[in-house]
């Protein structure tokens, strides 16, 4: 859950900055009609929501990466 939240916040911040910079370039106002905060917040919420749904409906996506990390660590400790 921590990883999903971190990625959602990073994506929301990235969309906020990209949208703000585009509106600054085109209209000369970073917060033109509050597009940057709106799209940034929506991107973070949608990323968190879809990632959480994927974790619920397809848990093997997240279990596989955890098992690979544990397997790699155990291989390194045996050598």
What would you call the quaternary organization? single chain
Number of strands: 0
Major beta sheet summary: none
Distance between the termini: 32 Å
Gyration radius, rounded:
18 Å
Number of helices: 3
Helix content bin: over 70%
Number of domains: 1
Shape: elongated
User: Approximately what portion of the residues adopt beta-strand conformation?
Assistant: under 5%
> Which structural category do the helix and sheet elements fall into?
mainly alpha
The succession of helices and strands, N to C, reads: HHH
Mean pLDDT: 86
Stretches where pLDDT falls below 50 for ≥5 residues? none
Give a written overview of the molecule.
By secondary structure, this protein is an all-alpha fold. The chain has one domain. The chain contains three helices and no strands. α1 (2-27) runs antiparallel to α2. The longest helix is centred in the first third of the chain and has 26 residues, at 2-27. The mean pLDDT is 86.
